[in-house]
Specification:
- The chain has one domain.
- 15% of the residues lie in helices and 14% in strands.
- The chain has three helices and five strands; from the N terminus they run αβββββαα.
- The strands form two sheets. A three-stranded antiparallel sheet has the order 1-3-2, with no helix packed on it.
Length: 131
């Protein structure tokens, strides 16, 4: 089993606005996202606090750690649909330009197709920072 490259990235959580249907943060409607970590975007959409700004100020309030080094999501089991649906590049055998774009912004190389098959994950080949 390989190490998930997202655990040493976190770029998407600090590059994109994390917005979702407001009910995903309403416990009485079955929502799982902690309401106190969100703010209203429109009458029908909410977002994770910290993601409304453009990088480098943007950063999801639930993101812990250092981007490009070691990160985790403090609400991973409760994360919203947009986070669950964002597939890192090559995880399912297909590229993800949005993943590549976020990684490039933080000086990280794009993920390679074989990173998901490496026994030690992407750490078995040290990433090369883009200047």
């Amino acid at each position: 089993m390989s190490v998930n490259p997202c655990l040493n990235c976190g770029a998407c959580c600090a590059f994109y606005r994390v917005s979702f249907y407001w009910a995903e943060a309403e416990p009485f409607l079955g929502g799982t996202i902690p309401t106190e970590l969100t703010e209203r975007l429109t009458p029908h959409r909410s977002m994770m606090r910290g993601t409304g700004d453009k990088p480098p100020k943007a950063r999801c309030v639930a993101l812990q750690g250092e981007i490009g080094a070691q990160v985790s999501c403090s609400i991973y089991p409760q994360r919203g649909s947009v986070c669950r649906e964002f597939a890192p590049a090559w995880e399912n055998g297909v590229p993800n330009e949005r993943c590549d774009k976020a990684r490039a912004y933080y000086g990280l190389p794009p993920l390679e197709p074989d990173w998901w098959q490496r026994p030690d994950g992407p750490e078995s080949t040290p990433p090369v920072r883009v200047a």
